[in-house]
Prior knowledge:
Oligomer: single chain
Distance between the termini: 64 Å
Number of domains: 3
CATH superfamily of the largest domain: Methylglyoxal synthase-like domain
Largest sheet: 6 strands, mixed
Structural class: alpha/beta
Amino acid sequence: MAKRALISVSDKNGVVEFCTSLVKNGYEIISTGGTYKKLVESGIQAIEIDEVTKFPECFEGRVKTLNPFVHGGILHRRDKQSHLDQAKELGVESIDLVCVNLYPFKETIERTDDFDDIIENIDIGGPAMVRSAAKNFDAVIIVTNVEDYSEVIDAIENEKNTKEFRRGYMIKAYEHTAAYDSMIANYMNKRFNKGFGEKQFIVGNKVMATRYGENPHQQGALYEFDKHFTNNFTTLKGEASFNNLNDLNGAVKIASAFGEDNAVCISKHGNPCGFAIKDNLLDAYIEALKCDPVSAFGGVVAVNGTVNKELAEKMNEIFLEVVIAGYITEEAQEVFAKKKRIKLFEMGSDKLILANDKKDFKHIDGGFVFQDADRVASDEVKNAKLVSKNEATLEEIKDLEIAYKVASLTKSNCVVYVKNSAMVAVGMGMTSRVDAAECALKKAKDMGLDVSGAALASEAFFPFRDSIDAAAQAGVKNIIEPGGSIRDQEIIDAANEFGMSLYFSEVRHFLH
């Protein structure tokens, strides 16, 4: 008796070739609606679903496959005589392969806000068939991905259709339906509950395993949303570790925060230790490195543009662990080839690319906290409130913007000092803002950097004037902070006393 395959797909890419191969291998094809039409038009003999169900498709296609002749054919056990006898008694014939991909819900919500249209693109029969076939993987192959067609045909033709093979596809099937239902639930919560429903689903697709996690005794892997890494992350040399991915994330966010500017960020353990914007990327790197060349050793460099041979030669003067850029030219790659341990990644674009995720979350013991993602609005610095007598020049405003954006992407408590579009000092991750300010100034002094005339940014308000006093002593001219302290007037008075400009953005950017 011929084996039977049930084919019902929204994505019809490759389905004709797949079914042609199935027929060659002795399968009878059962199909639905548009899939049936396409197969028949392509010369494939197929049985329409209502011949099997003995019931017409109804309610404008809402009910097609929800039928015991379909689900009985999929679900009855082939290893139990009682099931086989009952199938025979009821006239239920076996379905041995199910190929289903679901109504395009994601594409629909991207295309329209029409709720009726969205509701009609929630698949019911598809997930039911997928789950039935997956449950009975002992006897049934379940296929949910166009990319798996050739592997399935190979298994059928070359005696690889084992229980272990089908079990792998069973897991894929439940991942598929779980992700689909999660997307629907998240969308409904976004539409009706501001994105914070009783359940929150975080679904990612595996990109690659990392060599290990933060430490060698931990396993790790990278997962992505919406193919961000698949489309925008190419490994040119080396292997990205768990820690590399965390570190380059921070560097890329900072380097790409200034649009088309020639920005370079050097980071260590997720925090910036160098940053600059200059007329060209070579000068930007040279200036960024001056901030803290000691920390830069073994660090991550994110380049908002193309790394050419000249820049690569300069970078090669010290040990860097990771370079990520829009592009890294072949000549630059040849330069880096001399260093065994360096890892190179590019985004295949003129500039670095951010996914700009709308939500952000962090694991805590026993669960996770979930929030709207933070970012500095494009007009946040421009619209900051001048609260001092003195005003910054246009060039100084640019330094304030750089300092403020870098501070918003640096671990709290932090302060950032910027001069001539280059970071000259940074203090981060401190339990006290005074410590952050003093640590930054001490390091700048150690590096022989002149902070006088610099812009200073803090990601949260200064609670006391002591940080302003220290900044004045170092020669800081301009300050931007959120404001909002009960002692704001003390801060304003201190700024006026020292002839500084002081701006309140009235937006806090903690990063924990």
